[in-house]
Each structure stands twice: as C-alpha cells, then as structure tokens.
Amino acid sequence: MSERVCWNCAARLADGHFCLSCGKIQPLAAGEDYFSFFGLPRKLSINLEELEEVFYALSRKFHPDFFFNSSDYEKQISMDKSSTLNDAYRTLRDPIRRTQYLLELEGAKTEEGKDKLAADLLEEVFELNLELEELKAAKKLGDEDEIKEITASVAASRQKLEEKIKELEGELQGSLFAKWDALLEREATDREQREKLLARMNCLLSHLSYLRNLVRDIKEEVQ
Predict the structure, then answer these.
(1) For the segment 165-196, what is each residue's pLDDT rounded down to a tens digit?
(2) How far is residue 112 from each of residues 199, 205, 208, measured CA to CA in Å?
(3) Is the CB of residue 27 less than 8 Å from the CB of residue 76?
(4) 33, 50, 100, 117 — which has fewest CB within 10 A?
C-alpha cells in the first residue's frame, strides 16, 4: 500500500488505525485486508488468544460512544471500522474461513469438491448415496426391518466420513499451515511451491465442504 497521511493534520501515518500526531481515527486504507487490519502477516497459524485480545481492544476504541461529539465523518469511520473488525474477526478466528479468505486474496481458483475425490473415497460416496436412496424408499414402504439394516450401514459409513474429515482437517491445519507460513518468512518465495500449496489447500477445502454436506444429509435422513 502507498504511503498514507492523516486526513486531519496531514501527518504521515504509521501502521495503525489512529494518527499518532493528532489522535484522529483514520479511514480504511485502500487494499487493506483482514490480516493487515489486525496488524498480521498473511500467515495461517494464528494465536487465537492474542487475536481475541486485539479484537476487544479495537472494539472499545471504535465504539460509537467514543465519537458521540465527533464530526459525522469520524462517526462514519468508526462504524465502518467496527463493521470490518467484526467481519475480520469472524473470518480469521475460524481456520477454514481463514484459509478460504487467504485463497481469495491470492486469487486461487475454486475447485469442485466431488470431482477431485480419491477413487476409493468416490466409490464409497457413490455407494453411500445409493444407500440413502434405498433408505428413503424403505421409509415410504414402511419396511422397518429394511430401515434398521440400511440405517446401521449408513451410520458406519458416516463414521468413516467423519474420520476422513478429521484427517483432512489435520493435514490442512498442520503441515500445510506450517509450510505456507514458512514460505512467507523467506525473502524470496518459490512461486511454484507457493502455487502448489494454494492448490492443495483449495482442494482440501473443497473436499471438506463436500464431505460435510454429505454428513449433514446423512444426519437429516437417519433422524
């Protein structure tokens, strides 16, 4: 971002939300993202306790009550800042939303979840969908024995899917977060490696979204 100056006193602005010279609140900077809003680099491993502390500290500073006697311009800035703060906090505190947001910032293309599933998992999902259709048919016919048998099989499949979800979450929040953060610490990042990491994170997010929706459908059907 280009050098900024205070709208009130024209002093050069350091990083932060207030002018150090006159104390006036400053509008959102052009191109400012949720990470920079919290004074953070675009790393995926975040100390959530520190994030929360900054959130509450800024919430107090941006609160409209502090700008009751201020100009309309400052009141509007405080409301804009408060809104952005809330959106940024909700995004960054959640590892999945945080990763999705990073991918958006990096311009990574969204992948289709089902189409990229491993062959063995894709076959399992196909069979599960068939069982769900059979379960719906059995419910319409009122076949209690069939319902019990299929429900037990579906429950076992659901457990496998939930285990797979945990495995994917572990890879995302473990090795991939660490690899991405390590890349950012280098002065000259490897663009090819960077793109591979973004692609893998994108793929995992798509898988997670698809599998979670499938688990949700199972829960709804076996109630």
Answers:
(1) 999 999 999 999 999 999 888 765 678 888 89
(2) 12, 10, 11
(3) no
(4) 50
